[in-house]
Amino acid sequence: MDIFSTAVLLFLIMDPLGNMPIFISALKHVPEERRTKVLIRELLIALSILVVFLFIGDNVLALLSLDQEAVSIAGGVILFLIALKMVFPPARGGGIMGDTPDGEPFIVPMATPLIAGPSILATLILMGNQNPGQEIALLGALLIAWFTSSAILIFSNRIMKLLGNRGVFAIERLMGMILIMLSVQMLINGLTSYLVHYYS
Q: What pTM was estimated for this model as a whole?
């Protein structure tokens, strides 16, 4: 297994560039002095989830009697609801985080499903099964991808200042539409996999 190519694959699945506008939107109601702290906290939570699934993902799903299809469908539903609020924000201006304290995100949606999403969790489980005994190499590839993604996302505050409120507003609506399409595709993939697995 090539650690570098695996890290590139995981990085692409994490899609930090595509997630940047969503992170900016999720953090826009957080006081500026807390944004970096909140972002780092969410990145560390995401890393913890990814490491857990790398080593014991199969066991966790079995313990909870969950199939990988259920993880994909649940992630699609969550992303769809988030995307709807991005395109059609509440009249009171609560943003995509709703009634969370001070509009501050916690675990959802930044840590999961945006970073530690169904796609990368399923990929880690699959790679673990295909490369038995190489968990340390997989962990190294995961850390490379995570550090690179984190470095990109930490600059989201500067990008927010560069774009201004109108720019963030426009990108939030655009990314909301794209996210709706991605969430629907995630739901379709999960349902298709379920039907194929149980009715083939």
A: 0.68
